[in-house]
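Pilot study result, target chain (162 residues):
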Amino acid sequence: MTIATGLTLLRGVLIGPTVAAVLAGRNWLALALFALAVVTDAVDGMVARSRNEVTTLGGLLDPVMDKLLYIGIFSALAATGRLHVLGPVLYAIPQLGLGIGTLALWQRRGKLVAHWPGKAAAALTALAAVSLLLTPWGQGPFWAAVAANFLAALYYLRRQTS
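Predicted structure:
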């Protein structure tokens, strides 16, 4: 196993404690764990590229861990009443589409490449998670992130079919 894949798996290990902290109302702990998970997300790809250890496994695990992290956080926030119960569902719909689309593109083209709409949606999603954890008015960024994820899914769908 590469160091980068280990960092990706660490992000997966952080999901449970982050969700538990949200459910317990320990927002600062949840935020600290989330920040650590985001750092592993930022660093794993850089490590893999710098060490020439980019793997298919790492390329597949990375977005899966991201999706599980956010769905877990948003579901916990919905369970505590800080997010509408449909929030995690509406966030998950384009994520499922993006996941299936990414796998289809990978099968067709043999590589996984993120483009700016997906990166912008990911940044908005991180901002939404932080806003929901820290403020009572984090719903605005959340719904903007959901919209951005739907648009990114449509973008990737268009790329796949052209």
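One observation from the pilot: The mean pLDDT is 89. A full batch analysis is planned for the follow-on phase.
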